[in-house]
Amino acid sequence: MFRIIVFVVAVFVYGYADIKDQTIKTLESQSGRKLQVISVEQLKNAKLSLFVVQDKVSGYRTTLLADDDQKSIIVVATFFGTDKDDRQKVAKTLQEVESYNFKLENSASLNALFKAIPNEYKITLQGKGNALTYIISDPMCPHCQDELNHIDSRLEKGSVVMIPVAFLGADSLKKSAEITEKIKSVQNNAEKISLLKQIYATTHQASEQSSQSTQQVQNVTKIIENSHLVTSVPFVYEAN
Question: Distance from the CA of 162 to the CA of which of 46, 196, 199, 208 falls in 20 to 30 A?
Fold first, then answer.
């Protein structure tokens, strides 16, 4: 039994290597670019493999679908399929590749943007790992509220810096100003997260805050808008 298992694993490993080699050979011969395979995943409901390849010169990544013999390879922008897991897998990969390429192209500008935001405005949550993630977030944004609910998983990887903004109108401004005002009196992660979740909650009524806190939110929101780097929220940037 042990020998059979070892044989099957060996066949899988060598077969996997052949798939990567054949795909790279086909791509390089027709594109004239030097490429490397970053990842390969088999889709469940189709005889297709999902590839992420990286240009060795520019560093840019591309999402591809290849058939069983790697004779037909297409660049993926959108994927439709009957299997939910396949759709989610491709959508997640496309998002990760887009985020990677955006960071590659704009990392210097993004680092300058976050440096321009006053340190006293940033809400730092200490994490366990070495990663550093910036999250620009609007308390009135449903996707931002959902992102906040998953903050613990990000803290497992490293520290998170939250930056509240007012992209979505008057209530966004009031809630972000309330966060800015009240966050000064809390110190540890648990208290900060509790305060954020309280104010982000859809049941929490926005109210007028001090002119100083309101002006701080307006200033930071303007800095971010004028950068033309952030067009939607939540905006998540993994600095390292």
Answer: 208
